[in-house]
Amino acid sequence: MLTGAACLAAACGAPAAGVTGMSASTTPVAATSTPTGAEEISPPPGDPPVLIPPPKVSPYTYVFPVQGCKVSYRRKLLVLPKTTIWAKKGCAFVSPVDGEVREVNTTDRWSPATDRGPDREGRFVTILGVDGVLYLGGHLDTVDPKVRPGLKVKAGDRLGTVGNSGNARNTASNLYFAISWPAPPEYWWIRRGMVKPWPYLEAWEKGNRTYSPREEMLALRKRLGNLPPCTKLCGSAQTGGGGGSSRPQPNPRPTPTKKAAKKSPEPVVIDDVN
Predict the structure, then answer these.
(1) Is pLDDT at 87 greater than 80 in this prediction?
(2) Cα angle vertex 272, ends 265, 111, to 5°?
(3) Is 54 or 69 the better-scoring residue by pLDDT?
(4) pLDDT at 23 over 80
(5) Under 8 Å CB-to-CB from 209, ≥6 apart: which residues?
């Protein structure tokens, strides 16, 4: 029977000295180390990212209208709903979509003395796309000799080269790019831009090549009418012997015949250099 200190030691779990069957030795407990700072944890290597093409959002395929060169362009409305694409002189201007060449102007008639609205884009080509949208590339340096109204083109086909003709004469070379719908040539203010192009340019540039302006164009044409009047930059300077007012003439609007209004306008050669 344990008595006294031996009993107290046994009760506390410590062996009493000299007690039979009890050992005074203890088994040391391994000490756990506590990190003094945050340990760097390296995640295991993962699989390479899977590239997913953008969704197809229309049956049409587009390309950026300047190819082979570094470009920049403004993504906001200044005066007209068009974009100036800055690029080196001589860069290729290409058709942004499959379609047909509609208008061709190979002569730069613009003069600061008159500043006629129809002349401001200088040398230009318009393309009526298979999407029903009209595209204009202006301020061109050259128009390729093969380019004539009625020529069938594919997206990416070269039509001319970037320049600074028209009222861009004293600026760096650029492409005047506009989106609208087909109209008779006398309604020149329509072809110079009705639909804001920069969302579509940005999509085509970044690889979403089926993003189409068709729906926006149709909605705008329904709201404004097929042949809306001009509301901005409509008149001519009419100086330098023109004999007219130097102030712009607002809202020019030809009055087409009923037949002309119903008939789809034919392709036009504005100027043909032999």
Answers:
(1) yes
(2) 95
(3) 69
(4) no
(5) 54, 61, 62, 63, 203
Q: Kindly report the number of other CB atoms within 10 A of residue 169's CB atom.
A: 14
CA distance 211 to 38: 49
The count of other CB atoms within 10 Å of the CB of residue 117 is 20
CA 117/CA 21 separation, integer angstroms: 116
What does the pLDDT read at residue 52?
77
Query: What is the mean pLDDT of the segment spanning 171-199?
Result: 97
| Global pTM value | 0.72
Highest mean pLDDT pick, 26-30, 148-152, 259-263: 148-152
Reference 224, options 189, 197, 199; nearest CA is: 189
Give the span between the Cα atoms of 265 and 112, in whole angstroms: 30
Question: Is the CB of residue 200 less than 8 Å from the CB of residue 62?
Answer: yes
- The answer for residues whose C-beta is within 8 angstroms of residue 90's C-beta and 6 or more apart is 141, 161, 162, 163, 173
Report which secondary-structure segment, H or E, holds 188. helix 188-191
Amino acid at 105: N
Asked whether the predicted pLDDT for residue 98 surpasses 60, the reply is yes
Distance, CA of 44 to chain centre = 39
Please name which of 1, 19, 175 lies closest in space to residue 83, comparing C-alpha atoms: 175
pLDDT at position 67, please? 97
Fold of 66-269: Glucose Permease (Domain IIA) (2.70.70)
CA contacts within 13 A on the Cβ side of 260: 10
CB count within 10 Å of CB 228 equals 17
Based on C-alpha coordinates, what's the Rg of the chain? 38
